[in-house]
Amino acid sequence: MTVDISLPNATLWYAPQFLSPTEAGTLFAYLQSDKNIAWRQDTIRMFGKQVLTPRLSAWYGNEGASYTYSGLTLQPNAWTDELLNIKQKIETISGATFNSVLLNFYRHGQDSMGWHADDEPELGKMPTIASLSLGAERRFLLRAKNNHHQKHEIPLHNGSLLVMSGNTQHYWQHAIPKTSRPTNPRINLTFRQIK
Ligand SMILES: O=C(O)CCC(=O)C(=O)O
Q1: FRET label pair with 176: which of 12, 25, 118, 132, CA 20 to 30 Å apart?
Q2: Which residues of the chain are under the pLDDT cut of 70?
Q3: Range list of β-strands (E), the chain
Q4: Cβ contact 55:186 at 8 Å
């Protein structure tokens, strides 16, 4: 089942049970191991200071699909069979093609992602971004770029897929806020097409 999410100047749909709990659990167990995924904690520049990102990340993709954000340029790791397999499933349901994926590992509730849009030039003008969530449910917040009071919240379930396309990145920002509730780990994969 997929649900359209109605927001002005945005195209979003959500499949709450894209993966079964068993499939999601198997993929989570594979991804969380640093024997399988080259997890790293990057340092980025924020407000003139060097700070560690509050999460682990990893960048995988086709050769040459490098990605620059927050002053950081990531060179892709080579695809693993498991990542290629899930990429193919997501391409089938979304009708889009992807050549890269950003993985984020939120170890606990204090790991987070600040407000941003996936609007880097290498993603093109109207990127389709497919976001797969595994593990603990976290709040995904959207706010209009021109009116930060205009907000929308989607609780991203284990095994869910959220697809953002069209003008979404042009008009909206998104974030995963910290939470003080005891929170299990979560892994999110955003599949992208680097031009
Ligand atoms: O973890 C998430 O759901 C969001 C990840 C995200 O915002 C990104 O990769 O740009």
Answers
A1: 25
A2: none
A3: 3-5, 11-15, 43-46, 49-52, 56-61, 67-69, 72-74, 100-106, 113-116, 129-135, 138-144, 147-156, 160-165, 172-176, 186-192
A4: no
Spatial separation of the C-alpha atoms in residues 103 and 172, rounded to whole Å: 21
CATH number of the CATH domain containing 110: 2.60.120.590
Mutation test residue for ligand 1: of 60, 176, 192, the one with most atoms within 8 Å of CB: 176
**For residues 102 and 189, what is the distance between their CA atoms, to the nearest angstrom?**
6
Which atom number of ligand 1 is nearest to the Cα of residue 106? 1
d(CA 139, CA 162): 13
Atom of ligand 1 nearest to the CA of 186: 1
Total count of domains within the chain: 1
State the distance between the two ends of the chain, measured CA to CA, in whole angstroms.
Answer: 31
Amino acid identity at 6: S
pLDDT in tens, 164-181: 999 999 999 999 999 999
Instruction: Write out the residue range of the structural domain in which residue 148 sits.
Output: 3-192
Q: How far is the CA of 189 from the centre of ligand 1 (A)?
A: 7
Instruction: Give 179 Cα–ligand 1 centroid separation in angstroms.
Output: 16
